[in-house]
Each structure stands twice: as C-alpha cells, then as structure tokens.
Amino acid sequence: MSEQKPAAGGRASMKKELPEKFREYKHVWVFIEMERGVVHPVSFELLGEGRKLADKLGVELAGVVLGSGSEDVKHAARESFAYGADLVYLVEHPTLADYRNEPYSKALTDLVNAHKPEILLLGATTLSRDLAGSVATTLLTGLTADCTELNVDDDKSLAATRPTFGGSLLCTIYTLNYRPQMATVRPRVMRMPERIEGRAGRIVPFAPDLDEANIITKILRFLPDRESRKSNLAFADVVVAGGMGLQNAENFQLVRNLAATLGAEFGCSRPMVQKGWVSADRQIGQTGKTIRPKLYIAAGISGAIQHRVGVEGADLIVAINTDKNAPIFDFAHIGITTDAIRFLPALTEAFRQRLSPHSKDRLAG
Questions:
Q1: E strands, the chain, in order
Q2: pLDDT for 327-365, tens place per residue?
Q3: Which of the four, 1, 16, 243, 313, has the lowest number of CB atoms within 10 Å?
Q4: Phi-psi bin for 276: left (phi > 0), alpha (psi -120 to 50), beta?
Q5: What residues does 61 pair with on adjacent strands?
Q6: What are the pLDDT digits (tens) for 129-148?
Q7: C-alpha to C-alpha distance for 111 and 264, rounded to whole angstroms
Q8: Phi, psi angles (nearest 5°) of residue 44
Q9: 325 vs 344: CA distance, rounded Å
C-alpha cells in the first residue's frame, strides 16, 4: 500500500523539522521604537503580547533598544522592564541618534545574528515597517505584516494572523523553516499591559560595528510636524465616526459637532476617504487606523470586516444605522436602528445639555 501524501500546498506538506542552524534560536524579542527620545506606545503593547508568547514557549522576553547613549535610551530600557521584559539588549552608538535605515538595519541584523532570537516583533509604524522589511530581507527570513493576532502553535511555531483579500478573510501565516520569525503589529491592536513599578531585569550591551563615514544618508536638521489638526485617533478615549449612511460631505459636519461636544476625535470609514469627503488620516479600519477607545460611536457605517478589524478592541461600541441587518450590529454593544442624519443632532444636543463646558467634565477629558 502506497503512503498517503498530504495535499500539495497544505501546511502538513511543509517540512516541520527545523534546520540544524536554526535550532539554537531562542527567546522572544520586541524592538523598542524611539523617536526624539520618546518611546512609541506600540512597543509597550508588543511587550505585553510578547510576554504571553514567551511564557507559552518557556523562554525569556527581551526588549531591543537602539540609540546614541543618551539618558532617554537608558529610560527606555527601564520602562521595558516595567512592561514585562526580562532583559534588554542595549545597542548604543553615535550613528543611532536618529533613525536612518542603513545603520539601524545593520545594528539590528548584527544583534540578531549574535544572540539568535526565535521571534522578533516590531510595531507597524512608518519607522518600524521600514526597518522590519530591511532586516527580514537581510536575514532571508519571513515577515508577516499588520498582524491582528499572535499565538504559538502546538509545534511552537509563531502563528501570525492578519486580514487578507481586501479584509474579507483572516489568514494565519507560519514561518516554519526560518528564524527569526518576524511580525509587525499596528498600534492599538494589542492591549497595553499593566505597568509594574520597580520591576527590574538584565541589560546586555552590544557594540555595533558602525562608522558614520560609511553611511550614505545624513541628518541635516529636524523639522517637527506642528500641524495641530492632525488626528490622534489611535490613542483617543472617545471616537465618533461617520460612513456613507450620512449621504454627503456636508452631513459629516454632524459627526464633527458630536465629537467636539464630547471632546473626542472624529473619524470615518474608507468610502468617505475614497470620495474625498474626509482626509485619509481620519480613516478607521484595516487600511486606516486601528483604535481602542473607551467609547466608539459609529454613524451610518455598515461595519464590513475591513472596518471591524480596526474598531473591535473598543470597550463600548454604539452603532447607528437604518439597516437592522447591517454587519456592524453583529459586534456593536449598543445598536440603534434609525437615521443618523436626524439622530446625531438630537444626540449632540442631549450631550451638550448634560456635560459641563469645562474640559475636566467631558467624556474624553
């Protein structure tokens, strides 16, 4: 009797035996992203998720901090311990004062080759996306981008889940025969872990082989973005958003009015951006911002999977839609079947009368 072979292309058909050269790769790493001395919150969110993975694997969780040797770098290392890291690899060199792809990629690649992690996580930010792609390419390993869920499979492989086919499906991707297994996760997808004051760990210094003379790109000066109207959707406590149920661009002002009354941020679904009614920095969903507010009010948004993956982490979702069968009612905590155009002014007025004009008494204060 001939041996039955697994279906071509299936995961069972792939070689599960890790090559000998990768068997010494252990531990979970999180890249601690810093700009101008400030740690991006997604790094702490990933430490919380990395802690879960490390505990399942029975290994250590490490933070990776790159910088120029300033006090900010040391502070980032201490904060990494507070959010769950067992140790921090501290990579200090004058060329790492500001982010540039070439020195950061070389420093992180050399660190990986020297200490051999099995999992490396980075935030899906502009900076870390640039870095992750370069490092994965140099290491000849796989990279799963914009993950919404991370887990460890029975064979201890990283199971990285992300939306695919325009958000209509969720796909779990494995990097079976290569190390490290790399993934990026957008801000606010994972919950912020509890900060433990006084928690300590080991600092492992690493001296990168870098020379400013060999780096093509140069930092001439830093120009801060002081655009006051730029959205802060990802970190807002209260968000009000509108969709095509509002019918036209003028009616989107109803969303802005409610957001202003609540002291909230405002956003929209993708079709609003595609029509040019709202700027792209206000888009919520798979191809926009992922949010995790305490309160999310969605007016005239159908709630397709592309939008759902960006908002389902909210503590309370209130949906307003004329269609009682709209997908958003499947995951909203409170559903209101009515015309948002008529309902929003009444809701805004009710909040205006209820709330004090002082910011300390506002919902998002």
A1: 28-32, 34-35, 38-39, 61-67, 87-92, 119-123, 143-147, 149-152, 158-164, 169-173, 181-185, 202-206, 238-242, 265-268, 295-299, 317-321, 334-337
A2: 999 999 999 999 999 999 999 999 998 885 554 455 555
A3: 1
A4: left
A5: 28
A6: 999 999 999 999 999 999 98
A7: 42
A8: -70, -35
A9: 20
